[in-house]
Write a structure and sequence with these properties.
11 strands, single chain, mainly beta, 0% helix
Length: 113
């Protein structure tokens, strides 16, 4: 069974870069045909798809976030990473990594000075 676990800072200052890592166990991020993605949910709002990286390394990013978002991976660690630049309080959310029906537990990120 695939398991995903998010890690990263819980608090980020405005204008800084948020970096989150998703560690995958139970399968390889390079072997199957999942899209390894990031989704967030701001307080009181709907889920917001941010982007994903395919098993071949191709990346896909929500156009609304494209200028600030990058997704990469470390295949040696079976991890993939989200970077979101120039964060504002509107980026405060629970961030999830996901592959198909498998979700991480989510990590709260608060943007505040």
């Amino acid at each position: 069974q695939v398991q995903l676990q998010e890690s990263g800072p819980g608090l980020v200052k405005p204008s800084q870069t948020l970096s989150l890592t998703c560690t995958v166990s139970g399968d390889s991020i390079t072997r199957n045909y999942y899209y390894w993605g990031w989704i967030r949910q701001p307080p009181g709002k709907a889920l917001d798809w941010m982007g994903a990286i395919a098993q071949n390394g191709d990346t896909y990013v929500n156009p609304s976030l494209k200028s600030r978002t990058s997704i990469s991976r470390d295949t040696s660690k079976n991890q993939f990473t989200l970077q979101l630049t120039s964060v504002t309080p509107e980026d405060t959310a629970v961030y999830y990594c996901r592959a198909s029906a498998y979700w991480g537990q989510g990590t709260q990120v608060t943007v505040s000075s």
